[in-house]
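Intended use. Records like the one below are meant for learning the mapping from a protein sequence to its folded structure. Do not use them to infer anything beyond what is encoded.
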Amino acid sequence: MSAAMDTESTYSGYSHYSGHSKKAHRQGRDRHKSPRSKDGSRSEKSVTIQTPPAEPLLGNDASRAEEGQDDNWGETTTAITGTSEHSISQEDIARISKDLEDSVGLDCKRYLGLTVAAVLGLLVFLTPIAFILLPQILWRDDLEPCGTVCEGLFISVAFKLLILLIGTWALFFRQPKADIPRVFVFRALLLVLIFLFVFSYWLFYGVRILDSKDTNYQGIVQYAVSLVDALLFIHYLAIVLLELRQLQPMFTVKVVRSTDGESRYYSLGHLSIQRAALVVLENYYKDFTVYNPALLTASKSRAAKHMAGLKVYNVDGNNASGQSRAMIAAAARRRDSSHNELYYEEADHERRVKKRRARLMVAVEEAFTHIKRLQAEEQQKAPGEMMDPREAAQAIFPSMARALQKYLRTTRQQQYHSMESILQHLSFCITNNMTPKAFLERYLNPGPTLQYDRDRWFSKQWTLVSEEAVTSGLQDGIVFVLKCLDFSLVVNVKKIPFIKLSEEFIDPKSHKFVLRLQSETSV
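Structure written out for the chain above:
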């Protein structure tokens, strides 16, 4: 418990290193003040709100101040935090308001479709029962007695309705994974077909049985059985159209993210454009690495710095053409050598990443070694004094906190990992007796989008842009775009070519040969 109390005093907010003078605190505060003033997101147009409990391990301004920091930055700076604040831009406010407006309309459309399907399904299941019960209620005394065959038909109708109920529940009544802009054509056609089918059965029943008060009760029951059989065949048709038709791969789609060019290939069957877009998005969240705008901002700043040239001004109005030509030539030479600067800058960044990765791995291994030593000590104590995994994680976290912070800041991943999420992951690894390498796997390599919290995704609301109708099927050469607020996915559809495979027969006897040896030898 004392180790847990040391954690609270050692790591408050983001990090709190004690034992430094007030002068060092003022120097560290001034050091972070300059990049904050240059940040456009901290302008007067931004709105400041309170941060949710899962706060990032480091703010975005820490990544911008990274270039001007040395490797020993955490050892000479004191950071004292109070109430944490977070800035949100006007674009974020517009995105939040747009999501709220769209969610109301989408919910209404979703519940309307579910209501129509539920009402039609209830009508389908009650119709055979009504066909059997109405004659018993209206003209029971005039009906012919129901024999053994008629009573056996009751059992047939009951079990067929039970099978139809289970199949309908498994096929149709599933939680929707997404809201599509248009109706699903095959599902709508099946609903229309079922409605027309049931309506025609009711029309025939009303004209030929209700009006004439048919006394052949066994025939009426057989009529209800034929309705249930037809409904079962319609259910088989729905399985073929909704599930089996799309299983055979017919197209290959290439998905490219517009910001960094990351691409993946997927095989799809006969699908409409909107359903193909759903498949692409489902695979995007598990296959593509998480979108990190900080990496793009860093590359753009480097490119802008290297492309910047020298500007020549003639202040006095004198003819200084020779000097101007010399300065222009110097600017051209500077642009020609910019690739060298970019090469050495990227090499220095890779060296810094490798060094901090090595420091992080050593710190984590030492922390896990300390955990094993604590576990050996806890086994000698009474059962009531055992430390749970959460307390153990809080005990060893300060020893690796600074190395993890500096590595995440260097690789610009600090906005995806909060202190609470790191502690939860650490306690999970301790509970399941995982190795330091298993703990670091999440932080050394960027994972897919599903690995992170939903508020770190940067992509929740998507817009489908297509020249063709979104209800039309996939065709060779179709290109459609899935847009969100920060980036877009460009999808190019190619048809799998027809493969002609021929067979060549090889005669087994062609592999046989005869070796003839001459017994006579030359002397």
